[in-house]
Amino acid sequence: MNQIEKAKAFAALHKKGDPIVLYNIWDAGTAKAVTEAGAKALATGSWSVAAAHGFADGEKLPMQVLVETAKSITAVIDLPLSVDFEGAYSAEPEGAAANAARLVDVGAIGINFEDRVVAGEGLYPAESQAARIRAIRAMADGRDIPFFINARTDLFLAEGDLAKHAGLVDEAIERGRAYAAAGGNGFFVPGLIDPALIEKICAESSLPVNIMMRAGAPDVKTLAKLGVGRISYGPGPYRSMMEKLKQEAAAIYSTL
What we know:
256 residues, eight-stranded parallel sheet, Pyrv/PenolPyrv_kinase-like_dom, Isocitrate lyase/phosphoenolpyruvate mutase family protein, lyase, lyase activity, ICL/PEPM
């Protein structure tokens, strides 16, 4: 498939009630492994890519390294690749679009794009984030690429008290509408695990809703019944792999 065909195929995999499942990767090697396991598409996780290169999350990974990582994956795998782009490495719409263009140039067909103020406090106002989404959409349209912008809100991830999540749902729905109107293709709500709240957001969202698997989250079949259109695993696969690596190494070194 060429890049346009990959982008169209990726979008078509997002179905409410029949979600695409993305087991997040961090390099070309893990891309190959997950592809061989039966994946229909691939997605990086920012935390995992950063950690694999010795950096903390939060755009500490140099942008050039992120671009090179995406390029190394698309060079060896023929599946659609979405890149976790954090805050686009720019607060300004023009900078966000220019940085997204670098990922388009190396074959990526989509991004996760969050509304958290990276290296700052809180979230961008909905309209400010919508302006950045519009700029990325305009860039992609100018290249005739149906680029998949998975618009992420960190409302729930930023609130550690799960009992307060119900009070954030209305704002999340409004943000989702603003991001959809700006050109978003998906709505990502990491941190949300309450089934009733997930179902409400799915019912109100015109975009396929992305849920991230974490402790306490419903299983895949339950999320599908709630209307979810995309399920991802975030840093979970990396943490699992590193724990296994440490255990195996410890078993060897303990005998020396």
